[in-house]
Prior knowledge:
Elements: H1 18-27, H2 31-41, E1 49-52, E2 58-61, H3 77-80, E3 82-83, H4 106-125, E4 129-133, H5 141-153, E5 160-164, H6 172-176, H7 184-188, H8 194-197, E6 199-202, E7 205-208, H9 217-222, H10 224-237, E8 241-245, H11 254-258, E9 264-270, H12 276-286, E10 291-298
Amino acid sequence: MKHFAPSKAIGAGPLRGPRETRKDDKDGMTEQGFKRFRRRRAPAAATPFTADTEGGSRLAVPASAAPSLLPATLPEPWDRIRQVPFDGAGHQEARLPLVSRFRTAPAAKSFDLLRTRLLHTLKARGWKRVAVTAPAAGCGTTFSAVNLALSLARVPGSRTVLMDMNFRRPGVACALGLQAPANMTGVLSGTVLMEEHLLRPLPSLAVGLNNAADQNAAEILHSGTCIETLDGLMLRSGADVALFDLPPVLEHDDTAAFLPQVDGVLIISDGTSTTAAQLAACEKMLAGHTQLLGVVLNRARKSDSSLL
């Protein structure tokens, strides 16, 4: 004899197929049915996941115990630049005299004054990139660039980048008593990342060093890859000021090739050898390409001002 459910029971619950009905009636509720029931009853945010135990049973584990899938937070590019030991007050391997050793000396005071004037000019015009060059070799370009960078690095909350772009006679590494990890060509060609090449002798100062001369310097500085690399450097480092130590203006075309990449130029003149004609020739070459920020008189006599 066949038994039929009363007609009023029809539609009282969701329709199920014959096979599912028979299995549920025999075993109470299948595993699939329990899962569907749990999904319908529990909020989506609080739904636990299940894990197999050694006996094969299903063990409910709270969702909070699941391992986090969020990626780990990486430090910003500036913090990933490798820090190196440096003692500006007593570094014995430095070739050039660093004003950090003689804070009360007139030279140190002159660089601090130059720093303040430069920062005022850059801030007023929204500039960041400064080339440091000279009319001829031997005027003290590297000496001035390094000591100006050290002075800028003492400004609280600032970031300064010093790049050795003198492919003819690189000297920043020797001046600071540091070992250059590689030549600058790899960085400007994009094959070496900024974080892999730059060093931080001070928390607020990063330096890009060069360990080899390259006679194709002008072609390197002309390239589009060099332009993109420098733009990326400024963006990733978040530098407030970037100083570029460049070869003499009147001896090579390297500096002329690089002028479109800077906002202004500081010219270092030698009080014992630089002539007015040389300075006039430098100003003529800079005209129409970038701004002349000032002329720094190195090896000046006591009656002369160090800043013109």
